[in-house]
Amino acid sequence: MTTEIVVAPIVTSPEHPKKNRIQVSNTKKPLFFYVNLAKRYIQQHDEVELSALGMAITTVVTVAEILKNNGLAVEKKVVTSTIGMKDETRGRLIQKARIEIVLGKTEKYASMATPPSAQAREKEALTNKEEKKE
Q1: Which residues of 98-134 are buried (b: 16+ CB within 10 A; e: fewer)?
Q2: pLDDT tens digits, residue range 91-125?
């Protein structure tokens, strides 16, 4: 029995990173840091690419599901692969699981993600004030 290992080429280099890619770590930042960052990227670029290796894959999937369940994003593409990395301690090549999830902006994103305008807040405040007088 043979096992095929697919090594996905990395398309971007550190000098020219993708503007809408978030590389997720499960140790550096809390979950909702990535949720809020992904919201901002979707708003600016109409889509976001979430990428992770190994144990951080669960964080990427959770972020994607939160955005989808809140109606802010729709899944466009999911790619899984393994990549070869050099183990710093043992000095040998090890295989790591990798996932990339591309999410796009939903049609109702604009109405859901943006806070009410100052004008709408003023109107609401006046309405509340008038209701208290009655």
Answers
A1: bbbbbbebbeebeeebeeeeeeeeeeeeeeeeeeeee
A2: 888 899 999 999 999 887 766 655 555 555 555 66
- Does domain 21-109 correspond to CATH entry 3.10.20.30? no
CA-nearest of 97, 116, 105 to 38 is 105
The residue with tokens 């109409």 is: 46
Whether 111 and 105 have beta carbons less than 8 Å apart is answered as no
- The token pair that represents 68 in the structure block: 């989808």
Tokens of 90: 């043992």
- The residue extents of the domains of the chain are 21-109
Q: What is the pTM of this model?
A: 0.68
Angle, alpha carbons 22-60-78 (nearest 5°): 90
DSSP character for 114? Answer: S
Q: Cα-atom radius of gyration of the chain, to the nearest Å?
A: 21
